Automatic annotation (TrEMBL):
PANTHER family hit by this protein: TRNA (GUANINE-N(1)-)-METHYLTRANSFERASE
Organism: Candidatus Nomurabacteria bacterium RIFCSPHIGHO2_02_FULL_37_13
Subcellular location(s) of the protein: Cytoplasm
Molecular function in Gene Ontology: tRNA (guanine(37)-N1)-methyltransferase activity
Residues at which S-adenosyl-L-methionine binds: 114, 134-139
Lineage: Bacteria, Candidatus Nomuraibacteriota
CC per GO annotation: cytosol
Gene: trmD
Family: Belongs to the RNA methyltransferase TrmD family.
Location of the tRNA methyltransferase TRMD/TRM10-type domain: 1-218
InterPro entries, per the entry: Alpha/beta_knot_MTases, tRNA_m1G_MeTrfase_C_sf, tRNA_m1G_MeTrfase_TrmD, tRNA_m1G_MTases_N, tRNA_MeTrfase_TRMD/TRM10
Protein name: tRNA (guanine-N(1)-)-methyltransferase
Its job: Specifically methylates guanosine-37 in various tRNAs.
Amino acid sequence: MRFHIITIFPEMFDSYLKESIVGRAIKNKLISIKFYNPMDFCEPKRRVDDRPYGGGPGMVLRPELFLKAIASAVRKIKSKKIKIILFSPSGKKFDTNYAKKSAKNYTDMVMISGRYEGIDARVQKILHAEQVSIGDYVLTGGEIPAMVLIDSISRQIPGVLGKYESLEEERISTSEVYTRPEILNYTPPGRGKKLKIYRVPKVLLSGNHKKIEEWKKHK
Ligand code: SAM
């Protein structure tokens, strides 16, 4: 999968994309990520944003610069299995099913991240991009949504997850997980607080896989 990110803040992705599973997937060439910055198309002494028609406090991102950045991404894409997404808090809700379908159906995903009051609406009207939301809250920009999609879609690409990280969506898994030590002694901070003992649930030490699976399902 090739991700093409349209953003005025590409540096925000640096540390996230270097580390762990996503970093390894990039190194192993299972995914690639390219950035296209509308600022690069900005005329000298002009800004990437402008005042909103109709008034209001926030600035609006200029359409021509975004269209140019998107065109420069699309020009590089040879495949027909391409999807263009524009992030918006009022878009279609992203979920695991969306991630699975994306990994299966597309080779290239163009993701457009807004900022401030958003991107001039004509960009969406021209491209008919699908508007996608990662949840019912408003973020300051579309960079975190892009990282969420990159992470979640990459997990669905064969070979991205190692043996130990295998797809949690496909097996019984719980957020209640334990590792060593078997018995944890913990004294809460503060005067007069007593030591408490926390044990790993017995069933997980039993070696009885059927019972362990049942316990996880129940959880
Ligand atoms: N004025 C816009 C509105 O009412 O829909 C919100 C703009 S928001 C402050 C700036 C940018 O952050 C949006 O253009 C979008 O790219 C991104 N964004 C914010 N919340 C998001 C969410 N829940 N899901 C996806 N993108 C989001």
